[in-house]
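Preliminary data (for renewal application), beta-D-fructofuranose complex.
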Amino acid sequence: MKIRNILVALLLGAASLQVSAQSGNMSFLSSSHCMMRAESNSRYVLLPVQESAEITNVKVIVNSNVVKTLNVRLAADKIDYYVPFDMSEFAGKKVLFDFHVNGVEGKATAMKDYACWKNISYSDTFDTANREKFRPAYHHTPVYGWMNDPNGMFYKDGVYNLYYQYNPYGSQWENMTWGHSSSRDLVNWTDEGLAIEPDGLGTIFSGSCVVDKDNTAGFGAGAIVAFFTSAGENQTQSMAYSTDNGKTFTKYDGNPVIVSDVPDFRDPHVFRHAKSGRWIMILAAGQEMRIYSSANLKDWTYESSFGKGYGCHEGVWECPDLFELPVEGKNYSKWVLVCNINPGGPAGGSATQYFTGTFDGHKFTCDTKPEVTKWADYGKDNYAGVTFDNAPDGRRIMIGWMSNWQYANQVPTMQYRSANTIARDLYLYTDGTTEYLGSKPSAENEKMRGKTAVNKSISGSKTVSKMFSKPCGTYEVVLTLDPEQTSTVELVLSNKKGEKVALTYDKAKGTVSFDRHASGNVSFSKDFPAVTTAPVVGSKLSELRLYVDNCSVEAFANGGNSVMTNLVFTSEPYNSISVKCDGKKKSASLVVYPLNK
Ligand code: FRU
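Predicted structure:
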């Protein structure tokens, strides 16, 4: 036997030894089906994931009963990362995993030789230390796994609670569960684990929470009541309640509370309507928003629908919200109906449109012509934004998911995928004819400002080639302009590699544009390179404010009247800023603050 063959034989022997060590726990029953008896003395089973692998359907079985089902892309030939399956609720019990592996036909590797089986391991800990250079420093992210829409946001006793569409078993969309984070300042977020998990009615899609101060539902005064879509064979609406301020939830035993034969029927947003003393729910039903009312949060009466023929219908209507806001500088208020739509946004893909009008407790009446479409954010990466229930001081605070369904599953991170926008306080402003929704960075964000790094007045053009002594990817730029003198502005953020974003104002067109074609890594999706453009109501620009983090630039013009949120994946931070404007002497001033939590 040649030495090479002996080595191969030894290696094969070692491999089969490993397999046989594992095969005590594993039974391979067909080319696509196997079972594993878990060693249940550790807290976690660590499952190896390969993002490009097909989904494996997993049933977790205790005492012959299926106690959980999940879909995981178990590694076939390469391990991208591990996800933890928490065994603590089954401590002391025998736990059997049943795996149905999809897509085995025609594969070079037989299912029993997949990398996952030899690498499933057990541990009492799961390492969540950050491994991602693009992870934002001050935007909310899940510690690991996939996130989309913010859900069920509410404020109570000094704490902001943020739930979110979450996949605990991979960094791509699947297994929709409500993850939970909390914060006292809208900037520092604490991971609170899983709040609402899939059940027999389906996975847990988007929804809202209310604080039931007067115990109208009978779960107790101050109970938190969550509404969400049960995504089963059909989409139905369900509820759950919490008597520990949103840490744990109990599903209501009368679920589902609303059913329909409309296929896209989801994302209930509930609020207290003070004037009628009832609860109102708005939810997406196909190309409309439906409004329901209730006295006790459990029994719902259909009131009306809004949307046929109004605004943009180039995609699915999702994630609504409905609230009243005063109009700045005026003595009246208006109702705002938020309607997320995917695709069909002004920059392609997902976006948030809104309608202004009146709401009488039964019906929303839009105050603009049906053909008018208004957008809350003209960038590519602010979707599914909704507002907090019970926010203090009459504030209306919105957070959106900072991504776009066009490429959300492909962005170049692995340990986690997706962040939320910074918190923004909403307001209405008017040009005298129509009302618009503005979103201003919430004041809490300003607490992150460090010592001023740049403070220059500008006549003509200015380049600051080094804003910080150390590379810094997290900062705020405030460019203040004389609106009478200024008709063009070009602001460029760049790094030594030549990666850049350019923001351009053109008074004649009445727009601000954001070009991210050369922003860094743009190759993961053909839809990522883009120029996004926002109208400037009234055409004049007095301020351009940017929040820059490790993978995003959020641009606010005129305090938040026009907004663009865009992701960027730079190989190193943009450490240089150049500003060119046509105003005469000292028509502009540029201030840059590093941001630290
Ligand atoms: C919006 C959305 C919602 C749905 C959820 C599922 O991004 O499609 O309509 O509830 O995501 O994760």
